[in-house]
Design brief:
This protein has 456 residues and is of the alpha+beta class. Helix content is 53%, strand content 12%.
């Protein structure tokens, strides 16, 4: 039984057609150049048309294709506004919805996993899904004890589709690179592929969610829904009402944007310290902004709103919290100690033994990136993100050349992606965030007992 669109050969054909489309548009672009249009205008049109086709196909296929699209979607802030604007809606749709499975298929999965009398577990069950994402879709229901619940049903054949899609996408990762300036696509695909088994295991997801729900129970800032029931391919959790972060990005007030941004940063850094786990899928579809303090009353004071966190299918296990190396290196960079920063990076494997770099050049490379931590509060904007992406992506720039020579140890790969993704969401929000407060509170090594925090 498999309803993931559609047969493997069809999925492969759709993905294989993408690079052919890219090549066709490149030929079209060459023709436009020959007749006199500027390289900048032609390049922009090529990028726009390529992205429109890419995200349309990724959304249709679900599976690994959509998972890859969701991972890319948080980086749209790095794209020029005239390019990102026309397909931002398509990116947002990847974060929240995809074409749903037929009702008969959903019922068949529930019957197989929960038993022939599965309907007796629910007082109500909505056949129309409230959300449909990369490997499963969510239905709203009422559990037999009266609780409002979310029922996540895994797509039949999701595992094969994930692996097939990501293997196919990795073959033309180089062609996708120009879509997101400054981002290396292939390691992202590799990392997504390496975590397929965890993503499909609802038992592991339920375990991670229970740990977070217990730790954050009664928390004034973060709400994690309790797990109600779990079995193979089905996960039932408490329902979370609230404003999807994608709606806050699209039409939220500035107060809502700032509050959501502050709480997102707080959750990113406090989660590993409090649970030993890093939520590793920080796209807007996995967060809600919830009015009130969680005591059952609604409070329209935005400062009292909480962040609802969903989907713990991908986590990084960090028993000691985030590595001290990150905090130490950040503090040394803020202090402007080029030699100490360089020595620390060499010791931790960020600079290979066979490479020698100028410590001052390394410091110059890092300072713009950590700008949000240098001041008491920082406003994240798409313009700032684009500037950083352009600085790192331009092959003529010293930053690009130096960045290519730095090494990211495997143990930091997921932490790096989650951090970049979170920054991408903060830029989409346009949020003003007191990031340094969160670093001082939660990041090991950032505050040293013998040295005070850097001043703005």
């Amino acid at each position: 039984m498999s309803d993931l669109p559609r047969k493997a050969v069809t999925r492969t054909a759709k993905l294989a057609a993408l690079p052919l489309g890219f090549a066709g548009r490149a030929t079209w672009g060459l023709g436009k150049r020959i007749v006199g249009e500027s390289a900048e205008i032609v390049g922009r049109e090529l990028q726009q048309r390529t992205a429109e086709q890419l995200f349309k196909v990724l959304g249709e296929l679900k599976g690994g294709a959509m998972k890859f699209g969701q991972a890319l979607s948080v980086f749209e802030s790095a794209l020029p506004e005239e390019v990102a604007g026309p397909y931002r809606a398509a990116l947002t749709k990847l974060q929240e919805a995809a074409p749903p499975l037929p009702t008969r298929t959903v019922h068949a999965v529930l019957r197989e996993r929960l038993g022939d009398d599965w309907r007796q577990l629910f007082l109500e069950f909505e056949d129309k899904p409230s959300a449909a994402a990369s490997i499963g879709q969510v239905h709203r229901a009422v559990w037999h004890d009266g609780r409002q619940v979310a029922v996540k049903v895994q797509y039949p054949g999701a595992g094969d589709a994930l692996l097939s899609d990501l293997n196919q996408l990795s073959r033309f990762a180089r062609l996708l690179g120009p879509l997101i300036p400054g981002m290396d696509i292939k390691p992202l695909i590799t990392e997504l592929r390496d975590r397929v088994s965890e993503e499909l295991d609802y038992g592991l997801e339920a375990q991670a969610q229970r740990v977070h729900a217990e730790e954050f129970a009664g928390d004034p800032d973060v709400m994690v829904p309790q797990v109600v029931h779990q079995c193979d391919q089905v996960l039932v959790t408490e329902w979370v009402e609230g404003i999807p972060l994608s709606e806050v990005i699209d039409s939220g007030t500035q107060d809502q944007r700032d509050r959501a941004g502050q709480l997102l940063a707080r959750f990113l850094f406090s989660g590993p310290a409090r649970t030993g786990l890093l939520h590793a899928d920080p796209h807007p579809g996995n967060f809600r902004l919830l009015p009130g303090r969680g005591d059952g009353t609604r409070d329209d004071d935005t400062e009292d709103w909480r962040l609802g966190v969903l989907d713990f299918g991908t986590v990084d296990r960090l028993p000691g919290g985030l590595p001290d190396t990150i905090g130490h290196s950040l503090r040394l960079t803020l202090e402007g100690d080029a030699g100490a920063v360089y020595g620390h990076l060499c010791a931790e494997g960020f600079v290979k033994d066979s490479i020698e770099l100028d410590p001052d050049a390394v410091l110059d490379y890092l300072l713009p990136i950590i700008e949000p931590a240098r001041v008491e509060e920082f406003t994240f904007t798409r313009g700032w993100m684009r500037g950083q992406a352009t600085r790192v992506a331009d092959p003529r720039s010293p930053a690009h050349q130096l960045g290519k020579r730095l090494n990211l140890p495997p143990s930091y790969l997921l932490i790096h992606r989650v951090t970049l993704s979170t920054i991408g969401v903060l830029c989409q929000l346009g949020a003003t965030v007191r990031l340094r407060d969160e670093l001082q509170e939660w990041l090991p090594g950032f505050l040293d007992e013998e040295q005070p925090a850097a001043q703005a």
